[in-house]
Design a protein that fits this description.
By secondary structure, this protein is mainly alpha-helical. It folds into two domains: about 1-30, no CATH class; about 35-98, TrpR-like (Trp Operon Repressor, Chain A, Orthogonal Bundle). Helix content is about 70%, strand content about 0%. The chain has helices spanning about 5-15, 20-30, 35-50, 55-65, 70-80, 85-90. Helix 3 (about 35-50) packs across helix 5.
């Protein structure tokens, strides 16, 4: 598969930004992705939330079924990524205050 042009990637982002509600989001993502891919994204998002709240890799692996390698990758992006995980965690108030 050839690499999509940045224009096409931006078109995808714009499509997501135009979704109006949860039902539209479910329908769009189900047409766009396989059920497995949606579950994989959901588990990575769960791992990010759990990591942000100090949950151990072992507990995350147990609850999500993600490999330690995938959890480590999520942790890396949570700490050193583009700030997307942190932005959404704060926006959705999903980080427990200590």
């Amino acid at each position: 598969m050839k690499k999509p042009a940045s224009k096409e990637i931006n078109n995808l982002y714009k499509a997501v930004l135009n979704l109006r509600n949860l039902d539209e989001c479910r329908r769009f993502f189900r047409d766009l992705l396989t059920e497995y891919e949606i579950r994989e994204f959901a588990e990575r998002w769960k791992a990010a939330r759990m990591l942000a709240n100090g949950i151990s890799y072992n507990q995350i692996e147990k609850e999500t079924g993600l490999s330690q390698r995938t959890i480590a990758r999520v942790a890396k992006w949570l700490k050193n990524g583009k700030g997307g995980y942190t932005m959404m965690l704060k926006r959705m108030s999903l980080v427990k205050r200590t």
